[in-house]
Amino acid sequence: MRKIYKKAMGIARGTALTLGVAVMMALLLGVATTALAGTGIGARFQLGQTNTVNAITKLVGSVAGPSLQIDNNSADATALDLQVEPGKAPMKVNSAAQVANLNSDKLDGKSANEIGVNGLVHFQNRL
Description:
Blueprint: H1 2-36, E1 106-107, E2 110-111, H2 112-126
Antiparallel strand pairs: 1-2
């Protein structure tokens, strides 16, 4: 009976040691990968920091409202700043629908249908 007990205890100690080493390795690898998660493709988006990638970042969803809302409560700043190289369009859309408060359908305080063809010719002559 003592031989069986000694063998069982030896196996238990070996198992505990192996499991302990495995848990320690998992913790070390988990901490290391979390530390590196803020850089490169597939990394987390770090708020308050400059995030650099060399591939497109997409936000895809199926919600009833907007997928992304930016709310800057500062009185001295805008909510969105789009910067591109000279000659490049700062934004691209796939819809011809008008957006409230964004369309350039007014010229000198008048809508496009108030100017008409004669008004457009007159405006072009002023340029």
